[in-house]
UniProtKB/TrEMBL annotation:
Superkingdom of this protein's organism: Eukaryota
Gene3D superfamilies, per the entry: TAP42-like family
Database matches in Pfam families: TAP42 (PF04177)
Protein name: TAP42-like protein
Bias kind Polar residues: ranges: 269-302
Region (Disordered): 140-160, 267-302, 410-433
Species annotation: Cyclotella cryptica
InterPro entries linked: TAP42/TAP46-like_sf, TAP46-like
PANTHER family: IMMUNOGLOBULIN-BINDING PROTEIN 1 (PTHR10933:SF9)
């Protein structure tokens, strides 16, 4: 959002410095992600330094007690929160990003605290949402200090329905405020085009009155956006904390592997009796013959016995020799089960695409042939004379004679069953209807 304009020509004035700093934050080219992130961060950090030097706490508790130039500077904490969120950090270093997000939340809360202290600045519902978020965050901080402390059941939290209702209500408020801001900005542009003096009025507002109303509406809009940024930043913090914990777990596992390797190396280089005895035990265990198994199965068709000799090597079964009364061997049941473990759970194709295409082609040809045969048979079937004339078959004497018999039967049926003879309910009911 564009910063409010100032009428001063002094570039060192607080309003001019404020406008320059906000212009950097609003510049999409300077704050967007690109290869030149260092230059972007330098520009944003300079804006942060400028805004920090201009920040001050409001002296009055009423909106009427604050001067028009000071109203514009009340939004400095909000813009500082935006600036820290725009700082680019290394994707492999979530700690820096978490630090920036936490700092931005503190600035947004500071701005909302200013809005709460000044009466008649924001609506009461904005103050209630701010206090609710503040209570939730304070309880979360206390739980972090106590390492959980068993207070999770009493912790305040917002349900999905409550969050949705808050977002809907906030969207409606923001829409109304943005409409008023656009109207006031349009009046400001018209005053510039018409080159009106400061004391001249337009739609009942002079220059200072217009700027004051515009500053107030922007502060109200910033308050709504601060609530949104706090909620979204809290969600981002949860993901960052999870990423940091996962990174710490990976580092600890790597350190454990390294320490285990060093201990093994140290034990191998030391010539103590324990190590030598362990070497002897290891050598003896390696010289032991592997466990051997003989699987005996029976052929279900012939009833003859099948033998399969195997040994266990490195935890797996390996065949070392096979023999049977008939020379026929079968796989053991364990191997058969293992082969079916990783079979897909869906039906596999039973034919190739070429086979399916050939079947479809043969069926289509068969349907075409049967359709032609049916049409040829229907062509010489007896039917009404009008249909024979339409089909050009009126010269076929045999077909005309058969069709005439069909017409006579139809006419006889119509004489025997006159139209309306089947209506047996005609004498019942009220005849007036």
């Amino acid at each position: 959002m564009a910063p409010a304009t100032t009428n001063t020509h002094d570039e060192s004035s607080p309003q001019a410095l404020f406008a320059k700093a906000i212009a950097v934050l609003n510049d999409e080219d300077a704050t967007s992600s690109s290869n030149n992130n260092n230059n972007n961060n330098d520009a944003i950090k300079k804006s942060i330094e400028t805004l920090t030097s201009l920040s001050h706490k409001p002296r009055g508790t009423s909106l009427d007690d604050i001067s028009t130039p000071s109203l514009q500077l009340l939004s400095i904490p909000y813009h500082l929160g935006r600036a820290h969120l725009k700082l680019c950090t290394d994707v492999h270093d979530p700690t820096s990003r978490r630090r920036n997000v936490r700092t931005s939340i503190e600035y947004f809360l500071q701005f909302l605290r200013y809005c709460e202290e000044i009466s008649d600045l924001v609506e009461e519902i904005v103050v209630r949402e701010y206090r609710l978020l503040l209570d939730i965050m304070e309880e979360e901080d206390e739980e972090d200090d106590d390492d959980g402390g068993g207070r999770g059941n009493q912790r305040k939290s917002l349900s999905a329905g409550q969050i949705r209702e808050m977002k809907i209500s906030r969207y409606g408020r923001k829409k109304k405020i943005m409409a008023r801001v656009e109207k006031l900005e349009g009046l400001e542009e018209r005053r510039k085009r018409l080159d009106l003096q400061e004391e001249e009025e337009m739609e009942g507002l002079d220059g200072e009155g217009l700027r004051r109303d515009l500053f107030v509406e922007r502060l109200r809009l910033y308050a709504e956006e601060s609530l949104e940024e706090i909620q979204s930043s809290k969600s981002e913090l949860e993901m960052l904390n999870m990423a940091i914990q996962m990174e710490a777990m990976r580092n600890s596992s790597k350190n454990n592997h390294v320490s285990d390797g060093r201990m093994l190396h140290h034990a191998a280089t030391n010539g103590n009796t324990d190590t030598s005895s362990s070497k002897i035990d290891t050598t003896q265990s390696s010289n032991r013959p592997p466990l051997q198994l003989t699987q005996i199965t029976q052929d279900p068709t012939t009833g003859q016995l099948n033998f399969q000799k195997q040994q266990i090597t490195n935890g797996t079964l390996q065949s070392i020799g096979m023999g049977s009364a008939t020379g026929i061997t079968t796989q053991i049941q364990r191997q058969q089960i293992a082969e079916t473990v990783f079979r897909p759970g869906w039906n596999l194709p039973t034919m190739s695409l070429d086979e399916l295409a050939q079947i479809e082609r043969d069926e289509a040809i068969a349907r075409s042939v049967s359709q032609k045969e049916a049409e040829a048979e229907a062509k010489f079937m007896p039917r009404r004379y009008e249909q024979l004339v339409r089909d050009g078959m009126e010269d076929d004497a045999d077909l005309v004679e058969k069709s005439a018999v069909l017409d006579r039967r139809w006419d006889d049926w119509k004489e025997e069953n006159p139209r309306g003879s089947g209506n047996k309910m005609g004498e019942r009911g009220d005849r007036n209807f």
